[in-house]
Every structure is written in C-alpha cells, then in structure tokens.
Amino acid sequence: MCASHREVAARRPRNTEQSQAQRLSWVKSSYSGGEGGECVEVAVSPGSVHIRDSKGTGRGFFTVSQATWSALSTTPVAVTEEH
C-alpha cells in the first residue's frame, strides 16, 4: 500500500524541506494584497508546483501536481472585503 503525499511530507525531515526550498526558484503572486499581505509564492519543478506563504518562507510549503495547480489558478473565486 502506498502512502499519501501528505503522509510522506509529514515524515520528511524539516532540514530536507528547507534545503529543497532553497534550491527552488520562487516567484511572488502578482495578485498580492495592496498592503503587502496575503501573498503566496510559487516554484515550479518537473510535474509539480510548490506553494508557500511569502511572509513565512521558513515555515514550509506544500506541493500539488501541475494539473491541480492549473485547475486552482483558472477557477474563479469569490473575493470579499472585510471592513
């Protein structure tokens, strides 16, 4: 039986993830909030897209397939403003 990606990521040593993050080329979203908050950064590798919080780059990232990223990035989302 094969472990899920989440289970494998949970067992991966933290220093290995940090090392991988340093090797990736991260790009900040062009749809960042006006005050510099609510930003994500993405890095593309063969077959995968890695996503992290731009304000917490040392806190890790998660990985999705390129097909999943394509579906996520082309799906319209309702945006609400908090007052």
From TrEMBL:
It comes from Streptomyces thermoviolaceus subsp. thermoviolaceus. Pfam families: DUF397. It comes from the Bacteria. Residues 25-72 form the DUF397 domain. This is DUF397 domain-containing protein. Residues 1-23 are annotated as: Disordered. Residues 1-10 have a biased composition (Basic and acidic residues).
